[in-house]
Amino acid sequence: QSITELAAFVEKMRFPYTDVAETDWYYDSIAYITDRDLIDASDLEIGLFAPNSQLTREALVIAMYRLQGQPNVKYTGKFSDVSTKDSFVYAVEWAAANGIVNGFEDGSFMPRETITREQAAAIFYRFAQYIGYDTTKASRVETFADDNEISDWAKEAVAWAAGESLVEGIGDNRFDPKSSITRAQAATLLERINKTIVLTLTEEHTITYHLNYPGLSDYPEPLPEIVRDGEHGVGLTYTGRRAYPLPDEITEGPLEFLGYEDHLSEAEQKTIINPRTMPITKDMDLYCIWVDPD
Fold first, then answer.
1. Distant-in-sequence contacts of 73-82, Cβ < 8 A, 24+ apart
2. What is the pLDDT of residue 218?
3. What is the 8-class DSSP label of residue 283?
4. Measured between alpha carbons, how far is 294 from 177 in angstroms, rounded to an integer?
């Protein structure tokens, strides 16, 4: 397998979607949230993001949960249609416990229902309040032409989101509050809220992994993982939000992966760094350590 083929393989894993072209208006936003693993692929096996499909309630809550670093949360069984068998259970529990989402009068959450524009604005508004962002400093003065169609419980949130330029009208100064948002629109909104809200309060760092495998020293480029300040990393050889599969030359090679060091060393006793157990507080370069098992 050539270096060019390896480079193409890694690039495909970073952006695996065949239904999103670089010329699409939403390409950059989808690339941005893909790097941060905020929204899962529609069907990763066949490489689809499904940008024009409608976003579900559980998908947006998962994205907000991941933006916050997936904090630990206990299962309370708050909603009748959310159980421990659901992959999104802790995201929903976290969002409900912190007042970011509410259920319906019948005690359900309806995770697979599509999310409307006014619901998304309300979730962003409550999320911003939860992380300590000042939601009083931005307020839309002018009104949308269809303000009377915005639910009373969402009016303040929509005004704030519009004032922060997180949401915009869709033409003729209409907000269209009851329409559902697409996955492409959600990608744009999540990029905006991360840049406008989250990153003004918390910094991001990049862990750059160097494979450093003997005979593959000219591997085309290091592999980055973006981590919020104080979070742990995931690494290259583990499953997680930014795990990368390794080339066959490495996975089938004679050497075994030992860990990482923060600089290249010839010493037999290397200082092993585990990004999964240490809080990341700065940009880091980590080099893979390979040993002969014999």
1. 73/97, 78/103, 78/109, 79/103, 79/107, 79/108, 79/109, 80/106, 80/107, 80/108, 81/108, 81/109, 81/110, 81/111, 82/109, 82/111
2. 56
3. -
4. 65
User: Taking Cα atoms as reference points, which of 115, 60, 110, 120 lies closest to residue 82?
Assistant: 110
Residue 14: phi and psi, rounded to 5, are -75, -40
Instruction: Give the closest residue to 79 by CA, choosing from 67, 69, 88.
Output: 88
Backbone dihedral angles phi then psi of residue 146, each to the nearest 5 degrees = -110, 35
Ranges under pLDDT 50 in the chain? 1-13, 44, 238-243
Averaged pLDDT score across all residues of the chain: 82
pLDDT for the residue 137: 72
Q: Specify the pTM.
A: 0.69
21-37 tens-digit pLDDT:
889 999 999 988 887 88
3-state secondary structure of 21: coil
Structure tokens at 261: 């060091």
164-191 burial, b for 16+ CB within 10 Å, e for fewer?
Answer: bebbeeeeeeebbbeebbbbbbbbbbbb
Q: Which residues contact 44 (CB under 8 A, 6 or more apart)?
A: 16
Cα–Cα dist 203/22, whole Å: 28
